[in-house]
Structure formats: structure tokens, C-alpha cells
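For the sake of transparency, this paper describes our internal protein records without simplification. The record that follows is passed on verbatim for readers who wish to inspect the format:
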Amino acid sequence: MIGRLSALAIRTPRLVLVVIGIAFLLFGALGSQAAARLTNGGFVSNDSESARAADILERDYGMSGMQLVLTVESDGGATSAVSQARGKEIADRLKGDSRVSRAVSPWTEPQLSRTLISRDGKIGLIVATVRGTENVAPGTAKDLADQYVGSLDGVTVHAGGQAMVWAETGKQTQKDLGIAEAIALPLTFLLLVWFLRSLVAAAIPFVTGVVAIAGSSAVLYLLTFAVDLSVFALNIVTAIGLALAIDYSLLIIGRYREEIAAGRDRTEALTLAMKRGGRAVAFSGVTVGIALIGMSFFPLTFLRSLAFAGLAVVALSILLALTLVPALLVVLGDRINKKPLREARPVEQSLLYRVARTVQRRPALCALPVLALLVVLGSPVLGLKLGLPDDRALPAALESRQVGDLLRDRFDDNATGTVHIVVNGRGTDVGAYSTALSNVPDVERVTVDPGATAPDSVHLVVSTKLDPYSEAGQRQLQALRAVDAPSDTLFGGLAQQTADSESGIKEGFPKALIWIAAITFILLLLLTGSVVLPLKALALNVLSLSATFGAMVWIFQDGHLGGLGTFATGYTIATLPVLLFCVAFGLSMDYEVFLLARFAEEWENSEKTRADNDTAVALGIARSGPIVTAAALLMAVVFAGIAASGVTTNRMLGLGLAVAVLMDATLVRMVLVPAFMRVMGTANWWAPARSRPLLEKVALRE
């Protein structure tokens, strides 16, 4: 297949470019509609306890949708005539709106005044439940907010709550994508010119990357008709597509230039480059895909959808590398080398060869400080705490973030922290149970919802002053669950959603880890014929990623370095460690494959002595190291564009991936790998004697 695709591009390059040009326009048209079809949800499994409770609350109590909170403020306070008139008008209009299932306020429900009026008496709250799924409710909330937000007759209204948080998250993420591209694309092009020493040559991976961006957006749009896709896929998947497209283009151009420098004509050089480099690209895509598949083992729609989208974009990046890149190389011809390629220096004179030899002479002296650094960086991961994102993941200037701060700072009750308990059996006596629940610390009150339309449950509403995402909120949830109930119960609300999300992560992680480790081990075993080298690769990857996780916990969870402009909540967004692990693991294995393939090639052509092992490693690093370093730096620039986002989720992921890629390509691949392989010597290539004939038959060769 690789041969046929590349041969078609080489024979009819202009036809291929026309087809891809038309596809690019189509991609742009489809991709421009992707953002509107993405969702903020998927952080909780549909089978979780909170999801089942939500289904009953919607069916029997009309509590469908998401929360919209409006603050009504005036100089005269919430009880002034102007505030009462404005607040009651808005509340009555919301109650009569078919898009709202219920709305409460201190002006229409005076018994709730203590809860819905701030401690200083200045602000009153209108809490509405907006109908619709997580795909619909945020847009509806935004439409409703636009009708009421602003100042009128001395009364100012602001909008917040979960529905508005999600609406503003989607808008901010789409805005951030433009910023990320504005940062990444110019810097990437300048780096490509530097690496390739030619404007024309640099244009090939750059154009491929731009097409990949458009194609990735189109893939996301099409996938929304099959699965719910997170709004965060807009930045994450697009960045992966851009990074891989540039990475693979760089690899093929490097191979092509090697063949030209060896004296072959352009057609033969390109054919050989596509034969060798094309297989390397395909194998790389498989390794990245294996890691992305790991996300499908989690019961969270957010992660599963990103796994599917990521796989589709990896396939697109491979396709572009096998078609667009050779077509451009044929059309541009010798213009990619404005100056004739200089005769290559002996590899033994290269910087990376000398670095590898230096490490091999003093493996312990070089490796131990790096190991100590990685262990120290990774130590904060022991304090990792998981939670769901709330308004504090948004920039402080956004309205929903400001409303969230008001709720936490100026109200006794936390309107977002309500715990819903569905007690099985309509006739069940819940009096004693309600009393016991109300005695749990920081519970304000427990009320019975009279709005049932079915005779098989009782709905208890537990009002609390605690943040549902905090450790205190989780401890309170456990205390509530520990109270003896008169019948079976289901708990709902944001605190239970947080617990369910953490539970889903813990459930899926062992399966994902086993899948990634097992399949990666098998692939590297087939590539090298060694049992030791795959184990080494897995161990170093885990060490490198642990250091990355630790740094992220230290900065974003614990708030050091000012959280790099984010608000430290004391927990890490639950899905980020999984996403970071799967994506970073796949990318780091990409580099591992490049190096191991070179090591194995040099080893197979040697006398297989200890000195030959050292030489194979040094030559492999010297020959593959430049591509690994260039690719890592380019990827880091792309991910740094994501880190410029105003949303904590994107900032943490972008920085984490940039750090992981750079750390892996430098400290791990250039120091720890040669040090380890120097210490192990010929044992690096060990495999059970009985397995060797089989390994020879099924070995993968680049």
C-alpha cells in the first residue's frame, strides 16, 4: 500500500496536488463547522451513579439540563425596590420559558432568602435549570443570559453557573486555537528553514502541516455525527495532527537528501526514501496509535472520543506524508536545495557522536544526576489529587469565573454544591434519614422535593456551603453516604460526579497500562529481537512521564510559580493525567523506534562484541539524533501554542506535552539510553535461545 501510494504521487504529482488542493478547500468548509458541534461534557460514565441519578431526576422530577446562575446587584441591596422588581421580573420570565425546567429566587421564594442573598445583602441569586443535554444546554444558557445580563435602572445582572462555564469554555477554546496557530505556525516555519537550510524545503512540511490542520478539523466535524466529541479535541487533536505531519515530512525529506547525497538520481532517491522512510512513518503511526487506543479503556466519553479522533488524525498524517510530501518533492525538484548539499562529515566528528561517547566513558557520572533530577521532578506526583474542572479553569476576566468567585466568597450556601439523593420507594419514611443527613458537618439543610410524577422514589435535596470539587466536599459526600438509609439510594450532583470521574479513571488505568505496555513490548521485541531493550524503553518512558506529571502537579495543582497564570484549586483535572500519559507515551515511543532501529541495524552488521554494542549506540544516536532533536523541538513549539491558552486544561496539557517531548529527546535518549546500554553491554541483545528462530522469522525490519 505504501509503495502504491508513493508511486502514484511520484508518477502524477500534479494530479495528486490538485486532488489534495480540492480536499483542502473541502476540509476548510467542513472544519469551520466543527466547533459548533463539540461538547464540554463526557467527564463521567453514562453508567455511573451520578448519571443514573440524573436520569431519574429528569424522568420523575423534571430536573433536566444544567444550572444557570444569575446575580442581581444594586447599591440599595437585594431587598431594595429596584432589585426586587428586576429580580422578580427575570425569575418570572424564566419560569415561563419552556427551555427552563425550574427557577428559584429570593423574590419568588422568600423562604430561600437566607440561601440566595449574599452575606452583605447586596446580591441576590436566580438559580435556573436549563433543559437539554450537555450539547444543548450551554448554548441555551448563553441565549438566555444575553437577554438579561447588563445594567438597567441601577441594577446589574451577571451570568454564571455550570451551563455558562461550559458555554464560555467552548468560546475560549475556539479563540485559543487561533492564538495557538498564530504562535506555532510562524515559529515552526522559521525552525524548519533553520533545520533544512532552505526556504523551499521548509515549505514542504509547513504546507503539509497546514493541510493537516484543516483535515484534522474536518475529521472532528465528521466524527461528531458518530460520537460526542469534547471541545478540547479542537486544540489537542489539531496539534497532534500538525506535529505528526511535520515530523513525518521531516523524516522523509531527510531520507531523500541522504539518497541524493549518496549519488542517486532524483527519481531513484525519492523511491528509496519513500520505501524506507514511508515504512518508518507507518510504524511510527502504529506506535502513536497504540498509545491513543489506551484512552478507549476508560469509561469516560471524553477520553474515548479523543482516542477515536486521535486515531483518525494519525491516519490522516500518515496519508499526507505518503502522498503530499513526495508529490511536492517531485514538483519542486532541485529547488529544495538552493545550495548543493555539502559532503557530509564523518559521523564520528558529529556533536551527538561525541556526546554519546562521553556518556559511555562515564555512564554512572552522567546518568545518576539525570536520574536524581527525574526522581525529584516526579516526587510531587505522590500528592496527585483528581477532580473535575469548574469555572476556575477559565481566565479571571470571563463572567462565569467572576460569578463563581462571588458564590464562593460572599454566600453561605454554595449553589453549585447541592447533593441530590434519590431514595428508592415513594412511600419510604425519610424523616429520620433527613435529620441524620442534616447533622453532617457543613450541611445547611435537607428538604424533600414534592415534584415527583412517578411513585417509586423520594428526592432529597441536601444544601451545603462546601465546594463540591474540594477535598472537604468529597469528605462531606462520604459522610453523607455513610448515613444509614431506609432504602437503596443514588447520589447525584457535582460532588458525586467528581467521585465518579475519579473512579472511572482508576478503573480504566490498569487496563490501559497493560495494553500499552504489552503491545509496545511486542513491537519492540520484533524490531530488536531483544527482551531487554523493550523493558528498558518502558522503564525509561515511565520515569520520564512521572517526572512530567510531578512537574505539572507542583505547578498547577500546588500553585508554585504562580500556577503559570492559572488558579491552583488543589487538585488536578481528572482526565489530564490519562490524556498526557497516552499522547506523550506514543510520541516518546516514536523517538525510541527511530533510535532502536538504527542501533539494531548497526549491531546486526557488527561482530557483536561489547565494543560493537557501544559503537552501534553511538552511531545510531549520531545518525538518528538530529531528526529526533529537530522533531522534538518542532513538536514542543506546537504544544507551546496550546499552552498559551487561557483555559487551564489546555495550558497544562500543552506545557506537559512540550516538557515531556523535550525531556525525552534530550535527557532520556541522549544520556540515559547510552549510559544504560553501556552498562548492559552485549546483554542488551539477549533473548531466550529457544525464541530466536521465531523472532528471526517475524522480525520487523525498516
Summary: The longest helix spans residues 162-196. The two ends are 15 Å apart (CA to CA). The CA atoms of residues 386 and 574 lie 5 Å apart.
